[in-house]
């Protein structure tokens, strides 16, 4: 059965050229946690005075790393402290009992000692198989090399080291002028399966050279996360290790508050770009699907409908088969539990009005819908005709590739 | 791509020999609604004095037939009235606007006239493609033949006529002695995809020769449905046409009340047998999976966890791959939203204790779990260690067969 042999057909042509974020340096190593012949650990160092914020999986069976990060994010750092982020792929250190906690502690201590940082300023993430002990000593053995190799130009290497079943590394960036000065944002992400909100399952690390107070940074990250990573789903499954960490180094000398719209807009574009890349690397994905729901009784209802459509195996397989099967969209709306009136619904595939007022549109012809479904990027738009509630979520199709990857991932 | 070419590997050896239920007669016809060369309509007639009860999909986009049945089930019939059930496969008459309502009316009138029944005592179901107008005139043209062909021994023919993507017709029965007299129950069902509770997506028709007052029959059906058809899921998708109708003819002369435990137990065995057959015919299914959750904070929580496990694409693909990937079970528990404590959980595959106290069990070896996963019927048992809440649900694995069937069903 399947190994992941080829790049997603929805992948960008190449990893983007990301700007250097002054105050952040990266290093990678091949520690052999699980994979051979590739890097599987990345270390990022943030210059003293940097602030760090984060959002995490809401899973009740969170990994030891996530629990540790959550506790540390809440702390007020000393003014002169830097920070470090250590990430390994190949093993998630999740559901590994007390040994999992000990692994996190060992990793944090090693980085803390090597970099002269308090352990409370070392954040770790692990991604990969659940339930097997993390051979943390293999990572600890690489810490000195990692510290020695830190380089502000190595963010692309970091993006590669954190991948698991990903078929391409993910990066995105933005540059804006604030008060005549340039502020830069760059981020990397990994994730391709077990992707569903609360929060969408993946690892994401975003950096900026703006100076942002800790609470403002957290407010920005939490708010934008709700409209980006929390609006994507590949398979409705939620990882125990989801982590988004964002560091603001202040090296540009530009101070940004949470109310700064230009910065927030730029940051949202980076979050959305990374979120969409994760969907485009959805396991087995051949179609990128935008589900837009309008006219719902509330925004919450709109989101419930959109997620029901995006997670429906029957909708997702129809899209895989390039079948404009709008009946399955109706089915998904019906099952979602949110308010709907069969006879007020309208459905569009792309620009084509398929169904309205409880039935197929009089102008609609099957070949019109079929033409839309052949595109690699498809919009399914539903108007419920009930109110002003709206939501947009992103997903991919469900294909033989997903089955191949997941029926044979661990064995 | 896929047509459904072969019988599910989980199918029973043959359709069971079902007892005749005195007071019910069946007929079938090949009306060419969508399929050629097979029967696609069944008519059942219940003798005057029969009571009828039903449960239906909770979808907000219910089909015209379901809305019509729900209205009629609520009515008090005249004492001398019989009842009829007319079912077609090939077209679900769902999301067909006002034309859908007109089709239901046309069908009910045709049967009403031909059988001298009030239209309020004619129940219809339609199953198949959503959103295409039902060519009801093809069915109406067969009504006279159907009425002429009614036969109390033709329940197996009826089970065949109502199938769509099913790979085998489904039947189950029970016989019990009450006060020295024999009471019989026989039922048929169709369903293999778009199966999820509220209520599980399918058509089910069950008959008994017991005499049961209408309200008692409804109470029995509703209660037992909660523990059987509402506890199965194939793909988490819910049809717009789910219908379970039960008729009690009274022809045995034995009066049964809702408090009659022996009857209720026998009826539950028939419901469960049919529900399990639907799962075993789940689209592409190669494994029948029982998910047992105990030790939850409440029965509701247990059900939430059980359904999260049963609906998880990652759990279902692991089972398809015969991979004892208990980490994915932990993931599903974590995402369910119900209470869980990572460090109190235990997980068994079959009789094998796999994980306990937040980690893999010390006695567990991968080959022990792998041996269980090779069986066609697998139990995944989770104890949360929190309370007395318990629930059991049934599902199947997620395979290439599901993708093949659903990526190419309509085109």
From TrEMBL, chains A, B:
InterPro entries: Arg_biosynth_ArgJ, ArgJ-like_dom_sf, ArgJ_beta_C. The keyword Heme does not apply. The record marks 127-128 as: Involved in the stabilization of negative charge on the oxyanion by the formation of the oxyanion hole. The active site is at 201 (nucleophile). It holds the Pfam family ArgJ. GO terms for cellular component: cytoplasm. It catalyses: N(2)-acetyl-L-ornithine + L-glutamate = N-acetyl-L-glutamate + L-ornithine; L-glutamate + acetyl-CoA = N-acetyl-L-glutamate + CoA + H(+). Catalyzes two activities which are involved in the cyclic version of arginine biosynthesis: the synthesis of N-acetylglutamate from glutamate and acetyl-CoA as the acetyl donor, and of ornithine by transacetylation between N(2)-acetylornithine and glutamate. Heterotetramer of two alpha and two beta chains. This is Arginine biosynthesis bifunctional protein ArgJ. It comes from Roseivivax halotolerans.
């Amino acid at each position: 059965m399947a190994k992941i042999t080829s790049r997603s057909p929805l992948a960008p042509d190449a990893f983007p050229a990301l700007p250097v974020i002054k105050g952040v340096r990266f290093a990678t190593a091949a520690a052999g946690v699980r994979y051979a012949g590739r890097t599987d650990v990345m270390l990022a160092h943030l210059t003293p005075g940097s602030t760090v914020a984060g959002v995490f999986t809401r899973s009740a069976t969170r990994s030891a790393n996530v629990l540790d990060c959550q506790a540390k994010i809440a702390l007020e750092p000393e003014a002169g402290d830097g920070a470090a982020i250590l990430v390994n792929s190949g093993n998630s250190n999740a559901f590994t009992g007390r040994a999992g906690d000990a692994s996190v502690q060992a990793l944090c201590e090693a980085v803390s000692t090597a970099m002269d940082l308090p352990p409370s300023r070392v954040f770790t993430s692990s991604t990969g198989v659940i339930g097997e002990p993390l051979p943390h000593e293999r990572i600890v053995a690489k810490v000195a090399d990692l510290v020695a190799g830190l380089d502000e130009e190595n963010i692309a290497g970091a993006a590669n080291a954190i991948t698991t079943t990903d078929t391409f590394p993910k990066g995105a960036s933005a540059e804006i002028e604030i008060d005549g000065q340039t502020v830069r944002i760059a981020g990397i992400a990994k994730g391709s399966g077990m992707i569903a909100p609360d929060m969408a399952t993946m690892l994401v690390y975003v950096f900026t050279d703006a100076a942002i107070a800790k609470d403002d940074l957290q407010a920005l990250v939490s708010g934008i996360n709700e409209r980006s990573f929390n609006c994507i789903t590949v398979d409705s499954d939620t990882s125990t290790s989801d982590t988004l960490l964002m560091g603001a180094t202040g090296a540009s000398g530009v101070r940004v508050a949470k109310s700064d719209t230009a910065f927030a807009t730029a940051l949202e574009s980076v979050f959305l770009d990374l979120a969409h890349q994760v969907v485009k690397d959805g396991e087995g994905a051949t179609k990128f699907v935008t589900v837009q729901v309008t006219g719902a009784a509330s925004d919450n209802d709109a989101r419930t409908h959109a997620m029901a459509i995006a997670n429906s195996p029957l909708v997702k397989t129809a899209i895989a088969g390039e079948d404009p099967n709008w009946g399955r969209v109706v089915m998904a709306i019906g099952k979602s539990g949110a308010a709907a009136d069969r006879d007020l619904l309208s459905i569009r595939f792309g620009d084509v009005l398929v169904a309205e007022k409880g039935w197929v549109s009089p102008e609609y012809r099957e070949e019109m819908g079929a033409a839309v479904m052949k595109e690699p990027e498809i919009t399914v738009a539903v108007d419920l005709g009930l109110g002003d509630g709206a939501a947009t979520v992103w997903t991919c199709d469900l294909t033989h590739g997903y089955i191949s990857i997941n029926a044979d991932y661990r064995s």
